[in-house]
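Data availability (excerpt). The following record was deposited with the supplementary files.
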Amino acid sequence: MMSSQETEYHSKDFEWQELRQQIENDPTLRYHFLPYIHQSILSSSSSSSLDSQSWNQFHARHVTGKFFKERRYLFKEFPELASCEEYSKVLEVGCGNASTALPILRGKENIIVFACDCSTEALERATETIHASNVVSAERRFRPFCWDVSTCHFPKWLICDSCHETAQLKQNIFLSGDFGNNESDCTTDITSSKESDCCIGGVDYVTLIFTLSAVPLHRMSTAVAACFSVLKPGGLLFFRDYGLYDMTMLRFEPDQRVGFREYKRSDGTRSYFFSLDSARDLFLGAGFTELELEYCCVKSVNRRKQKMMRRVWVHGKFQKPM
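Predicted structure:
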C-alpha cells in the first residue's frame, strides 16, 4: 500500500487527453503531426559515430555538471531498487554524468551499478561525479564502460553465450515444470547473484532514464532487445522518457523534424517523444511483459520567466518473463 507521500508524488497535475485536444486544435502546431517523408538513412556505424561526437561535444560544453540534477525521485518511482537484495546488479544505459547512477549508489549501500554511454566525455564526467561524492564504496561499486547499445549487443562479459543459453534452457524447463529431481537447484541457478569466471551472469535491473529518446527511431528496437538479453529471467527494466506533447516537443521548429515525433537539435543531438503505444510496441516486441505504463503530467514554473510549463513524461516498468 502506498503512503500518502507517494500518492501525492504520483498524482497528475493535468489530464493528458485534455492537453492533446488543446495542442492538436492549435493551427500553429499542426506541423508536428504531419506525415514525414523519410530521407535516406545513414549506416548504423556512420550514424553512431556522429551521435557519439554530438554527445561528446554536448557534455564538454556542460562540463560543470550543473546542467543535470541528481534524480532523487528514482526510489519513489521504482521502489524495487530500495528493496532489492544485497549486491544486486544494475545496468544503467546512457548514464550521462551519473545523475541516475549516483542516487542509486547512495540509496543502496551494496548495490553494484554498471553504467554505459556512447560518449567518452559523459563517462569522464560520471566518473568524476562518483569519485567526488561521499557515497560509501561508490568508486568500487560504479563500473563504467563505453558502449553504443543501439548498434550492437552488449559485451560478452555481461553475459556470455554459454551462460545465456544455459539460462534460456533452464527458463524453458521452469516454464514446462519438468524439473526432474532438481527443482530447487534450477530455480536458484536462474536467479543467482553470483558471478562466474566467464561473465557476471547478467543483471537484475536495467534503467533507461531519458536515454532511448536520444536514439534514432530505427535503432531503438536494437537497443531494447540488447537490454532484454542481459537481464536475468524475472529481471526488471525501469523506463522514463519524454512523452508526446511535452513542452520541449512544441518548441522545435519545422526544419528540426527528422521523422514523425523525432527531432534534431542544432548541436546534432536527437529527441523522440513517446506515446504509450509506441513505448509498449518497442518493449513488448522485444519480449518484455508490461507491469506499468502511464503518462506523468506535471506542471512546473519557470521562476525567472514566471511561466507555467506543462511537462509530459512516460513512466514504464517492464519485466523479462520468468
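Summary of structural features: The radius of gyration is 20 Å.
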